[in-house]
């Protein structure tokens, strides 16, 4: 993974440290030093120094000779979400949507060929997949992923889909690349996407885009149901209109938030006397 930089200001040590952090995933929650070095593509001494540094910083811990991430790494992603202002804006809207539908709702963004969950309000239902902030799934197998992929240019879409998934899940083989392209065209035209048990049996969801102040699609919001409990007709007829309205409200508020002054200018008051 290391050795990608070409610019004069590229910091290879930082890149290697990030390689170590991203080496951990659902299939590699705890790894030995040798395993980390292998997955990250680093020499064993280099991986050791990086792991010990990350351990001292609190991002990694060692248990019985195996390394694992600590909750502190969430601060890295949380800082990104906070900088967008999106989660603070979306939270009350998601909570209200969940109260109306009785179903879980999430927001996700695109990271390579995967989606990554950045916000979620769930209801206590048994579902086939565990989802939490930071969970990643192959974008093409999810309703949110289809919305985000549909917003890409043809060149960007090709480049994105060429990247291997880091979710640890097998690729979906239920359709060809041509069928996916045709579906994304439909998603782009109608403004929503459906995933019907493509990610896992029993998981059905519909998603819509969330836009920033320029109108660009920056995230996707969904409603997820259990296929045995909620039909596609109910999902699209009852929940989709509420989802579209909610995403529109979030997009509008986010646009206002982005347009606010980001620097406070101190006002000088004339001195008395």
Give a structural overview:
The chain has 273 residues and is an alpha+beta fold. It folds into two domains: 12-69, Arc Repressor Mutant, subunit A; 76-259, Beta-Lactamase (2-Layer Sandwich). The protein is built from nine helices and nine strands. It has helices at 12-23, 33-40, 44-57, 74-84, 86-101, 143-150, 154-161, 177-190, 232-259, and strands at residues 30-31, 60-63, 66-69, 104-111, 114-121, 136-138, 193-196, 203-211, 217-226. Strands 6-5-4-9-8-7 form a six-stranded antiparallel beta sheet, with helices on both faces. Helix 5 (86-101) packs antiparallel against helix 9. The longest helix is centred in the last third of the chain and has 28 residues, at 232-259. The protein is globular. It starts with 11 loop residues before the first helix and ends in a 14-residue tail after the last helix. Residues 264-273 have low confidence and may be disordered.
